[in-house]
């Protein structure tokens, strides 16, 4: 406890003697900056504290400690590895809400693609929680053995729901726009998102890096911007629309574009996570 008290960025340490029932023993509350939290977790791992007890991480609204104002004022926003894991689980576990958001995103994208209206497709991108399931695969590879499978299952279930939503919405979208399924390949945005361009790959690589950075800082409000930069939603919507309309060429083009987008996310996002894992979270992690 003395070593923790002396750490820069530790604003307060409270010892609650005998407060813990399971496991039995004392409880320790520590108020610290983000940087100090990472250092404390490393210390707890080195001393074997994780083998005997548990740690709960939470974020206060504010810490008022005038004597530590400099450290508080200059703290960064790098989150603990386990906090990233909790966020990814909460946002990507296969729940009715997750599947419904992915399906409705596909449906909205179908309406936008059939009407050739960009802002509607952008709205569909903002709805879908489609980036984090892919990142969870990589996060799991660098963490524990259950993570990659959970991320893969979430990705498959979510994007299948998206394709199904687009397929279900297609007949109504065609009816409202007075168009036939044969018209789809000739539409501008359908053609754009069913093909692969070098500029699109470059944008997706940068977006993948940005997305991993956003997740590691828990700035999830900005994650929607990553989905707009990526073409994951419209390309998968085109897969569902192409299969539903019998246009296999459109479906294949959409699947190819989606596959390229996924590879960009895995490569760029994985690079960011690997660097952070090596230099910022090099301790033993429990997620």
From TrEMBL:
The keyword Protein biosynthesis does not apply. InterPro entries: DUF389 (IPR005240). The chain crosses the membrane at residues 94-114, 120-144, 156-176, 196-215, 222-243, 255-275. The keyword Nucleotidyltransferase does not apply. Keywords: Membrane, Transmembrane, Transmembrane helix. This is DUF389 domain-containing protein.
């Amino acid at each position: 406890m003395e070593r923790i008290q002396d750490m820069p960025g530790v604003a307060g340490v409270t010892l609650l003697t005998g407060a813990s029932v399971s496991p039995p023993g004392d409880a320790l509350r520590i108020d610290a900056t983000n940087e100090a939290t990472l250092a404390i977790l490393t210390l707890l791992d080195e001393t074997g504290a994780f083998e005997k007890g548990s740690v709960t991480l939470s974020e206060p609204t504010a810490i008022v400690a005038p004597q530590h104002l400099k450290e508080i004022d200059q703290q960064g926003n790098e989150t603990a590895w386990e906090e990233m894991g909790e966020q990814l689980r909460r946002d990507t576990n296969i729940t009715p809400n997750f599947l419904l958001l992915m399906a409705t995103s596909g449906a909205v994208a179908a309406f936008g693609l059939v009407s050739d209206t960009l802002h509607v497709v952008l709205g569909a991108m903002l709805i879908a929680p489609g980036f984090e399931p892919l990142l969870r695969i990589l996060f799991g590879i660098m963490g524990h053995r259950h993570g990659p499978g959970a991320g893969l299952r979430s990705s498959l279930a979510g994007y299948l729901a998206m394709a199904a939503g687009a397929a279900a919405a297609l007949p109504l979208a065609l009816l409202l726009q007075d168009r036939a399924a044969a018209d789809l390949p000739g539409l501008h945005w359908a053609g754009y998102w069913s093909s692969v361009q070098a500029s699109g790959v470059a944008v997706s690589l940068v977006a993948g890096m940005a997305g991993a950075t956003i997740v590691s800082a828990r700035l999830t409000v900005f994650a929607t911007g990553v989905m707009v930069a990526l073409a994951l939603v419209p390309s998968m919507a085109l897969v569902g629309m192409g299969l539903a309309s019998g246009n296999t060429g459109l479906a294949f083009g959409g699947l190819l574009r989606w596959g390229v987008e996924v590879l960009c996310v895995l490569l760029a996002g994985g690079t960011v996570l690997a660097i952070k894992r090596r230099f910022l979270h090099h301790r033993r992690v429990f997620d």
